[in-house]
Design brief:
This protein has 13 helices and 15 strands. By secondary structure, it is α+β, with helices and mostly antiparallel strands. Helix 7 crosses helix 9, helix 7 crosses helix 10 and helix 9 packs across helix 10.
Length: about 400
């Protein structure tokens, strides 16, 4: 490296050139000394920087040496302009995700991994909920996807119950609220429009109450209807020997006596009368008095009537030594056959209750009879019961 300096000094008339020559030599000597110093400094700088240059990282994108700022990711180095998202092709300047050695913006990584909320279709950046193979933001899932309580309308987080009608509700509501004695629904303003408390201790929801039957003449008409329909199925009765009465729970308990069971809906009391002539039986008759709970919808009463009519038939035509499971199972099976002829959503709901009853006598007894005789004629069941 060389430096030069030109100094123009004015020539003074009457003076000689000696001062100029002396000054020029002095400047030349000083410049020579300055050049030597700069050359030495420059060479020293090269000596110090050369190892750093030789050790400089190569950009994993372009393969060239990186001499300035760089990005390091997973042990690899990049020029900042070459640290590019594999998803959108734009430069990554902040946080990033990695997949199979490729780098992504957080949003692009979420798309790559399928981390898109199935409800709002936006990227999931943090925690998420998986349900039935789909991913959701926790808020989207809780507020829009998670089933809501049938009673309070809040999301069903934690333990919940599903009733016969498919309604889901927090299990603690069953400890706080009454159930309808007839249909089993939780009674609340939201679910049933409230309910009624009968004087006999029953709680009835307003859904059932609006169709409730109390009048005995109406209940007698319902029995005639059931008898006629069962007759078409092959089950006949002597109508003159059967009477019916709608009662509340207190009266039903008195009629049933020691046979009363919790949740009983009806009872058939059979009284026998035998007439003798010369110490010989001349005539034996049986009278059947059926008691059914009133204050419930007509179809529920019809189902109970069908059950109790079968008890009357059993008392007339079979011995009294059948197992309780066979007797009650057969009576429930007649209710089942009757409800099938109604062919309505309410009848299917009552059938579902019969099928889901877990009672050893009524529920399991019914399922056993049903599995044995559903694909056979009713006469085959009746003949089987007669022969036992």
């Amino acid at each position: 490296m060389a430096f030069c300096c030109v100094v123009n000094l004015p020539y003074l008339q009457g003076s000689n050139k000696e001062p100029y020559v002396i000054l020029s030599k002095k400047i030349k000597n000083e410049m020579t000394s300055l050049n030597s110093k700069y050359i030495f400094s420059f060479m020293l700088l090269i000596f110090l920087l050369l190892p750093l240059y030789l050790q400089a990282q190569e950009c994993s994108y372009c393969g060239k040496k990186i001499t300035g700022r760089y990005v390091e990711a997973s042990g690899r180095y990049f020029h900042p302009r070459h640290f590019i998202c594999a998803g959108c092709g734009k430069v990554i300047t902040g946080s990033f995700g990695e997949k199979d050695g490729r780098f992504f913006h957080p949003d692009c990584y979420a798309v790559k991994e399928g981390l898109i909320c199935d409800y709002c279709k936006k990227v999931i950046k943090g925690e998420y909920v998986t349900s039935e193979g789909k991913k959701y933001h926790p808020g989207c899932y809780e507020n829009n996807v998670l089933a809501k309580c049938y009673v309070c309308g809040k999301p069903l987080n934690g333990e919940y119950t599903i009733d016969t009608y498919g309604n889901k509700y927090h299990s603690y509501h069953s400890r706080e609220l009454s159930r309808c004695d007839n249909c089993g629904r939780i009674i609340s303003n939201k679910t049933t429009g409230g309910g009624r408390a009968y004087s006999d201790g029953r709680d009835i929801c307003n859904l059932c109450y609006k169709e409730a039957v109390f009048d005995n003449s109406r209940i007698n008409s319902l029995m005639s209807k059931v008898m006629q329909r069962l007759k078409t199925l092959g089950l006949g009765f002597n109508e003159r020997t059967i009477s019916i009465k709608g009662v509340d729970r207190r009266e039903l308990k008195r009629a049933a006596g020691s046979r009363y069971e919790e949740n009983m809906k009806g009872i058939c009391n059979t009284n026998s009368r035998t007439e003798y002539i010369n110490n010989h039986v001349s005539k034996s008759t049986k009278k059947h008095e059926i008691f059914v709970l009133n204050g419930v919808p007509s179809l529920n009463i019809e189902s109970v009537i069908a059950h109790e009519l079968m008890h009357a038939w059993l008392n007339d035509n079979t011995r009294d030594d059948h197992s309780s499971g066979l007797r009650e199972g057969s009576c429930n099976y007649i209710s089942y056959l009757y409800l099938k002829t109604v062919n309505s959503s309410k009848s299917y709901q009552l059938i579902k209750q019969l099928e889901e009853d877990e009672d050893d006598t009524y529920g399991k007894g019914f399922l056993k009879v049903k599995s044995e005789f559903e694909n056979k004629s009713l006469s085959q069941l009746l003949n089987y019961l007669k022969k036992l």
